[in-house]
Amino acid sequence: MSQVLSFNRPLPERYSLDAYKKHFAEFQEFQARAFHSQPINALVKARARFVDEVLLQLWQYCDLAKDKSISLLAVGGYGRGELHPYSDIDLLLLVEKRPGSAQHEAIGRFITLLWDLRLEVGHSVRTLKETLSLGKEDITIATNLLEMRLLTGNKQLFNELHEAAMSESFWTSQAFFQAKRHEQQQRHAQYHGTAYNLEPNLKANPGGLRDIQTIGWVAKKHFNTRTMRELVAYQYLTEDEYQELMECEAYLWQMRFALHLEAGRNENRILFDYQPAAAERLGFGADGKASVERMMKRFFRTVQRVSELNEMLLQHFEGSILNSQQKVKVSQLDDYFELHGHLIKASDNAVFAKRDNLLRLFWHIANNSNITGVHSTTIRLIRQVRRRLMGDLQDYEACRQLFLALLRHPRGMDKAITLMHRYGILAAYLPQWRNIEGQMQFDLFHAYTVDEHTHRLLKNLYKYSLPEHDSEFPLCSDIVKKMEKPELLYLAGIFHDIAKGRGGDHSELGAMDVREFAKLHKLSDFDSKLIAWLVENHLLMSVTAQRRDIHDPQVVAEFAEKVRDETRLNYLYCLTLADIRATNDNLWNDWKGSLLRELFLATQKAFRRGLEKPMDLRDLIRENQAEALPLLIKQSFIESEILQLWSRIKADYFARYSPKQIVWHTEHILRHKDPNEPLVLVSKAPIKGGTQVFVYTRDQAGLFARMVAALDSKKVNIYDAQIMTNKDGFAMDTFVVLEQNGEAVTSPSRQQSIKKALEQFIAGKPDLSRQKPRLSRQMRQFSVPPKVVFLPGNTKHRTMLEIAALDTPGLLCDLGQVFQQCGVNIHAAKITTIGERAEDFFLISNAADDALTPEQQSELKRSLIAQLSQQTEG
User: Fold this and answer.
1) Region entry Uridylyltransferase: which residue ranges (predicted)?
2) CATH number corresponding to 17-170
């Protein structure tokens, strides 16, 4: 006899809340111990039986067993006889007529006892007529009734409900199928159509438990069966497919059971908090990320198989079972494939014995815009042949030619690449792709696994060629349409992260992989070198734009020197934009877009001027002043007055700001009457994707710390800062800020609030001490060791400082206070957040307005590390 069945401690003879709670706790401990030795389905069913016993005894205790006009029914998952440790217990109390006061009181007492035991109970009290009426209107209720189970009470009443609920007059098979499919589509859309998130929901995500249940629900309704096993006899699924579904379900059940035990509640999200402990409980080891990676890889492969089976079986059910009598238009595509309506279908079961047909299938999908998907019988053939493959599809010359033809096809990156990824053919073609399938990325920067991120990048690249996206990506669209070989861009996208998780620099390893690919596929030396360079340098542009001062001609010149020519620049810009946008739906914003665009245009200008003659800083200053001056004179300002103000401002200012911004600042400074009061300007409309906050005030000790504290108090994120002190001792500082959601600050009241806070903080009125904000749940799972590095700068009178740390709330405010305490002046700041990691760059000087001495650097580093360590511990 199995251990699960050996829990034979009887319930206490008399009801006592403490005794029942103790009994539940003992059973919970027993199941936690048995988890390592018992089959998961035995554990899940044993819990349902255990709850059955409790409910029946409490039913008697409340004198409901004597009442012959009521039935107690288990519905939903509990109706199937399946319960995880903290699953909802769904009950239907079926009554002959609306309860009288005595029956109502008894039912209330019964439910209260269940709540006292802290059971997650979902219940309803309904008559037969009410149940059927509501079930006809609500697909969720109708679905729950499919799996109802009589626990106790009036059996005839239960039989009447069961017979009515399974009848075609309640829900027809066709209507039920359509409702469940629509429900599934809506659920998938909530998760962006993928389970390949880093904290997936194993129940609701595509490929999760709900998808397995949907496969069964539509068929059980049609065939009037109770179990999935019975559907094999109806040829709805094969014996192998049934076994595969049960194996997938068992693994997802194991994960769910472990999650419930770790969370101590009904938790279906595989949160970072529980991943290490769940992995250890599931037997993947206790070595941190490596254990989690093994667990999650298996999870992602499981949900991929479920998604594939779900698509195939629902399509098979609709076409071959529900609509078997309907005629579908059939047309021949070639000797191997035909078009059935809008689905491509293999002409016979031996089509894929010729291996290149696995690629030819997807070439047809790209070539024929009428094809919306693959026929269920052909999906079944793909699944069968994929398991029999020995070696990689790229070993065959015919496959290689078709793969390149697909990359070069104008619609190759549309449905074709998505379906190749979904059905495992991309992994069957590229051996390196198999390594990144379900590959976790342990940070908050990436929202998806490596393969899903890469798939999304390819879709972004494809959008550049579509006219309907011209306004979304105008520059990229213009570049791609002029590219002679956009397929090189796609190949760079496929290989840019393909070496992640293999140890070493993934950019360098990926470049080696793509060189081998180019050699095998007989690409030219030029094309091979270009793709390899793109893979090796795919982070160069984003790092430069987000961490360096792109308004510094020297930075642009260094970047241009690395890129070397305009062709590489075009490819790199398009790849970088697609890469960032495919990383995390919440990370892209117009500010990042404007940084990349500015860097692209500045580098393009440098190339067109000739790298040996990049734009001189003095030329840029003269150009900007010459454009701004007449605009100010038009506003009735006197030229001598303008030039007198400009003479007090350092020359760098005129290189870092556009003529329009110079005009904006100058006109307000000239109109500002009281020099003892700070002038604060907040841009009403976004400038280059962000809200610009300009401050003109007398310089003072700790000014940066005060301004940062003011912005921090208004809950805006700082992305960039230009800190400048004029020759007359006035500060001219600019911050680029965004709301927490990455949008510019557009509300007039919010803009006014930011302005007022800065004025007050600069005046020194508020207390800078504040309660330390709490770290978010996700952030607490990460550790970023503080790093303080002094870098060689472009000027001998300034020191460049890089700080990397965990992106805790108020980090910049804390850094500002350290700078103040150490007597450090800040001249420029570049604020970058990469998931959980903050990487900030500062251009600083000492109190004598010179570069920091080695002793001063050592003291500042010690103070910063101490502050950052304290912040992490908090």
Assistant:
1) 1-332
2) 3.30.460.10
